[in-house]
Each structure stands twice: as C-alpha cells, then as structure tokens.
Write a structure and sequence with these properties.
- The protein has 676 residues and is α+β, with helices and mostly antiparallel strands.
- The protein has 2 domains: 10-269, Beta-galactosidase, Chain A, domain 5, CATH 2.70.98; 301-665, Glycosyltransferase (Alpha/alpha barrel), CATH 1.50.10.
- The strands form 9 sheets. A 9-stranded antiparallel beta sheet has the order 1-9-10-11-12-19-16-15-14. Strands 2, 3, 4, 5, 6, 13, 17 and 18 form an 8-stranded antiparallel beta sheet that branches. A 5-stranded antiparallel beta sheet has the order 30-31-32-33-34.
- Helix 6 (326-338) packs parallel to helix 8, helix 8 (380-395) runs parallel beside helix 10 and helix 15 (594-607) packs parallel to helix 18 (651-669).
- 54% of the residues are buried.
C-alpha cells in the first residue's frame, strides 16, 4: 500500500529484558525546529541528552532539556508494578521495570512499548508534534481481563539546562503554578513548560531526584551524574482501549486529543512516504529498510528562518550534539531532499547557505549565540557547488540558479586568487592547496587543544577531486544559463592534468596529500574515492579501477570505509576513551558510514553493475536494528564486529546511503538506451 509505514524494527523479551541490550538500542524523534526527544528501549537515561523534550529555548539551536522523564507505576489494587527503570550512582538499577517489557517496536518513527505483567497488558507510545515544541507520552490498557479500572501513577521529572551540560540544582528554581488539577506551569526566566494530564489529574510532590548515572557519558570521559526535579505525579485511569497520558509543551496551548495527535504524527510519516513514492518511482516497492531511511532523512531537516528568508531551512548534522555544519549539510542535501523528491526543501537550504558565503567560503558551522561565523573549511564551498549541480539535475530550476550563480562564480574566483587559511590554486599545476599550521580544514578535522590530529596541509586528494568536479559543474551550469563555460573548462583541463601527480606509480591508488610540509603522504585513506564517485572524475578508467580496488581491499567494511588502512602504525582499531583519546583516533581507523554510499557509486562506475553495487548497501538494514533504531550512526570501530560509535543518528550517514540506493536503483531498473 502506498505510504504504508515500515514496521520491521522490533525486539522481544530476550532483548528488552536484557538491560545491556535494551540500553544500547535508542529511539530518537525530531520536531522540525531543532528540538528532539530520545531515550533507550529500557527506559533508562544513559546520556545527558536523553529526555522527553529537548527544545530550542534560544532558537534556532540553543537547545535545553526541559522535560526529562515520565516514570509510570501500574497500580492494581494493592499491587504496585513499576514500568520504568533508572540508573543511580554506584551502578544501582532500581526499579528494574524493563523486565516487564514484552516488546518494543517502531511504527514508522514512533516508539511503541508493550508491557505484560501476567494478564495485564499495556501499550505506551511517545511522539512529538511536528513543528511544535510539544511531547506526548501516552498509555492504553490492551487486555480487558481485569473487571475494574486500573490506575497509572506517572512521576513527572523536569529540568532547565543546556543539553550539553549537567544540572546545577541551585540554578533551576522554577515557579510552579496549578491553574486546575489537570495542569501545571513550570516557569523560569528562559521558558515556561506546561504539563497536562489527559485522563487524570496531577498531584503535587516537588523534590529533587539526585545522582542519575549516565554510563555513556562515563564511557566518553565526561561528567556522568545528573539530577532532575519532580513536580508531582500524574494519576491516570486506565480503561481498555482508551489512550491516557501526559502532554508537555513550551507553547501556551497544546492539542489534548491523544487519538488525533497520534494520528497526525502517523499520517505525516505515511504522507511523506506516499509523496516520495509519487515523485520518485524508484521508491515504489522499495525494501522496508530503505523506506525507514526516508523517514530518518526527514528528522535532520529543520527551520532556520532569516530576516530576508523567513522560510529558510538547514540540516542538523547529527543527534544529539551537532548543529548545522556547512560541510555536512551540503554532503547530506542530495540524499535528504533530492533523492526523496523534496527539491523545494533543497532550494530553501541552498538559498539559506548562499546568504553566508564570504570570500569564496561557506561557514564550517553556525555558532550559538552572538559568536562570529567560522569559515575554517576548505571543502564546504566545493560540496555546495556539487549540491547545486545535483539540484539542477533534479529540478531544472534555472530561475533559482540564475539568482545564485554569482555566488558560485565568486567561489571559483576566490579559490583561483586565494582566500583564507592558505586556500588557493597553484598556478603551476591547477591544484588547490590549503592549510596553515594549527588549522584543520578538511572533513578529517579532529583537533585537541592546539594539536591538529590529521592536519593534511598541502594539496589533499579529495579537495582536488572536488575542485575538478566544481569546475566542470560550474561550466555545465554556465551553459544552462547561456553563458560561456570557457574559463571553467580551461581551468578544469589544467587541474585534470595536474591531478595525475596523485597517481602512485606502483598502481596502489592515489596519494592522500601532495606537497605537504613533510612531502607527499602515501597513507591509504578513503579520500581518494571521491576522485571516482563524484560526477566528474579527473582519472582515466584504469586508475579509477585501481582506486576502487585498494579502497575495497584495505578500507571497506559492512557499514562503511575505515578512515585509515590497518597496515599503518597510527591505525586505531577502537574508538573509545576520554576526549583526547577519542579525538586522537577519530580519523585514524574508525569506519565512516557516509563513505559507504560513495563506495557503492564508485564500484558501479568501474564495474557497470548497478545491482552488485547496490548490494554493498544492504548490511545497513541490520544496523537499523541496533544503536539509534531506524537511523544510521556516525562511525563504527575499525575492527570487527564494528561496534557503532559517535553520534547515534548522523545526517550524512543516512543521506549518502539513501542517495546511492536511489541512483543505483534507477540505473538498475531503467532500460538501456537504444542505439542505432
């Protein structure tokens, strides 16, 4: 059925009742405003970022935890049965309510729990109102064997801190007001949180619950104790088939019809899938995991209004700790929007970022507050050009291209003349050089204090693959506008000739960096792959084959490509430890999922078999059942079994797999062109 929601992500008692397994599986929801909700299947908090409403209190991305937990206890006469679990200091887990979870599943993106205690069966659901800072937590009684109503007591835990921080109890002293027994207002200078009990009342009971233990923060070498304020309990009546629960919102009013609110959420997901299938034929009959990725892609899109562009949009690079990054946004844009038939959103994102182009560069990230924009990236502007090329291919929107084309021309002009951070074209070989001591400019951008872990100063291979692709793309766009492409084609010819310097004479792929402070860097990294996967390649077919061969042999794993071949002394097989250890190994071995899509496309380019290339993407289905459920992690350990690490939901990880699948599906299913 068109628009039918994927329903394959589920686990039963064997996983739900095993705390370690239930905690490593997380659900993530987003509201389109930059806000989100997240937690574990077990119901425990394991990150500082877990909570039922993390909202942009200081828009667009000053996100605060405002509603932490809703801990439910089932009351049946004299029996009290906790349906929640908490971790406390000293590795204490109490109560162990997760043992009552019979099953967990995602219905589309909506997390659904089924609790079973003997013949008493309950269902719980959580969802966010799209386009609003409003959370719903709902329960209904499934079995009707009891001959009387049941009661649910739900402890309401709130907070008021930046989602990156830990709670300082003395800093959170809200005014709590009750306009009637079903409502509470929790007011602090920065926001007002409103709580409603639907199908019951709220009973006062204010007090701090201290020393929640956060094991993932402990694993990351960060502060791992947190505290939350109880503002009382919602006392709800459970009747068979009737939804009851709690609504939390930063708005003055919220819709309290649980059935209608839930249906709006589910209908939106179904409509998103139906629109994708209607606009992009490749998605009709697509596998369940691909349709799940279509929904996951939507979770990274959010509103970023500007004074002259009120409908501006952008991309959350990853949940929970990323904002919108220039590089990540442009890499992810084709998969998040164009592959799914949402070119209007792509247009708004491109126009939003065009406002911030400066001296030929795009911002590395949009900062919070009044900080100035940071332009320390050499590749964001080049990916921006590739995003425009992809947008025109999908939309044929030459009117918008004409509006933005001067920005693209300026990017090329500044790169030829030279701009910030030593970024500029070497007139001797047409290649781009970049970098200054103490800066990190490419996507391999880890920095610890003054230590740039992978500096890559000189002429990085992927930057020059992007440069050649950008020159060819701008030439093509100039033709679309009736302008002369000669300037760009001449530069591209020079760059193509200069790019031959990257080719290793032993046939083992490409150098990673040329003309660095210590000479040429021969380490085997995945950056060379872009010289094959991008639409315009500067390489002859034989060299393309060599690149794909060495990347497949040395770097390919089930979930992506290693950032460094294991043969090198700097290779780090596991991504773990405190901040310095983790950042020091970030690009020295971990597997990056976003590279898997590029490998699949490159494999097709050299082999010509779309089905075989597409098959490299299929292990991602298994990953959707682990870590961030229904989405794709940022990185994985470089050594088997490739445990998921980093952010559990990453935009370019989802986008590049989705984009590659759609492109390869089109190649796989379209009939070959006839020849005369």
């Amino acid at each position: 059925m068109t628009g039918e929601l994927p329903n394959f992500i589920r686990c039963g008692r064997a996983l739900c009742g095993d705390l370690a397994q239930a905690e490593r599986r997380e659900w993530w929801l987003a509201n389109g405003l930059g806000g989100y909700a997240a937690g574990t299947v077990a119901g425990t908090l394991t990150r500082r970022y877990h909570g039922l409403l993390i909202a942009p209190v200081r828009p667009p991305l000053g996100r605060w935890l405002v509603f932490a937990k809703a801990d439910a206890t089932l009351v049946d006469g004299e029996r009290e049965i906790p349906l929640f679990s908490n971790r406390w200091a000293g590795s204490v887990v109490h109560p162990p309510g997760h043992v009552h979870i019979e099953s967990f599943r995602l219905e589309g993106r909506m997390p659904v729990w089924r609790f079973a205690v003997g013949d008493l069966v309950l269902e719980q659901r959580i969802w966010l109102e799209p386009g609003a800072n409003t959370t719903y937590v709902a329960w209904r009684r499934v079995s009707a064997s009891a001959d009387h109503d049941l009661c649910l007591r739900v402890r309401l835990l709130v907070n008021g801190r930046d989602h990156h921080s830990r709670t300082q109890m003395s800093d959170f002293q809200p005014v709590i007001e009750a306009s009637d027994p079903t409502q509470r207002r929790i007011q602090v200078p920065d926001f007002t949180l409103r709580l409603w009990a639907v199908g019951g009342v709220i009973v006062d009971g204010v007090g701090w619950f201290e020393n929640f233990d956060l094991p993932i923060e402990h694993e990351r070498g960060l502060a791992h104790r947190d505290h939350h304020l109880s503002v009382g309990e919602a006392v709800l009546t459970l009747r068979p088939g009737v939804w009851t629960g709690v609504v939390a919102s930063l708005h003055e009013a919220a819709a309290l019809d649980m059935n209608a609110a839930q249906q709006r959420f589910l209908d939106r997901d179904a409509e998103l899938l139906a629109q994708t299938e209607a606009r992009v034929p490749e998605f009709v009959g697509a596998p369940d995991w691909v349709r799940q990725l279509v929904l996951a892609a939507d979770s990274f899109l959010f509103a970023r209004p500007l004074p002259d562009l009120p409908d501006g949009e952008s991309v959350i690079a990853g949940y929970p700790w990323f904002g919108d990054w220039g590089r990540d946004t442009m890499i992810a844009l084709p998969g998040l929007t164009l592959a799914t038939g949402r070119s209007a959103i792509a247009r708004r994102i491109l126009l939003t970022f065009a406002r911030f182009a400066d001296r030929g560069l795009l911002p590395n990230l949009f900062p919070s507050g009044d900080e100035s924009l940071a332009y320390n990236t050499v590749d964001a502007a080049l990916w921006f050009i590739e995003a425009w090329r992809a947008y025109l291919e999908a939309s044929a929107d030459t009117e918008t291209l004409a509006e933005a084309f001067p920005v693209l021309q300026e990017i090329i002009a500044w790169h030829v003349a030279g701009t910030r951070y030593g970024i500029g074209m070497d007139p001797n070989d047409g290649l781009l050089r970049a970098g200054e001591p103490g800066t990190q400019l490419t996507w391999m951008d880890a920095k610890v204090g003054d230590w740039v872990v992978t500096p890559r100063q000189g002429k990085p291979v992927e930057i020059n693959a992007l440069w050649y692709n950008a020159l060819c793309s701008v030439a093509g766009l100039a033709r679309r506008l009736g302008q002369s492409p000669a300037f760009y084609t001449d530069l591209a010819a020079q760059t193509r000739q200069g790019f031959r310097r990257f080719i290793k004479l032993d046939g083992d792929g490409l150098f990673d960096v040329l003309d660095g402070p210590d000479g040429d860097d021969a380490r085997i990294r995945p950056n060379q792959l872009f010289a094959v996967s991008l639409p315009h390649s500067p390489l002859d077919p034989a060299v393309q084959q060599a690149v794909v061969r060495v990347c497949g042999r040395e770097l390919l794993t089930s979930y992506g490509l290693r950032s460094l071949a294991p043969r090198h002394a700097e290779f780090q097989p596991y991504y773990r430890g405190a901040v310095r250890e983790r950042d020091g190994g970030y690009h020295q071995g971990p597997v990056w999922a976003w590279l898997l899509g590029h490998y699949a496309v490159a494999h097709y380019r050299v082999q010509g078999d779309a089905a075989a290339a597409q098959a490299w993407l299929e292990p991602i289905r298994d990953h959707l059942l682990d870590a961030g459920l229904g989405t794709v992690s940022e990185i994985f350990d470089g050594a088997p079994p490739h445990h998921p690490r980093g952010a559990p939901a990453q935009a370019w990880s989802v986008a590049c797999v989705l984009d590659a699948w759609q492109r390869l599906e089109r190649l796989r299913t379209q009939p070959p062109a006839s020849t005369c």
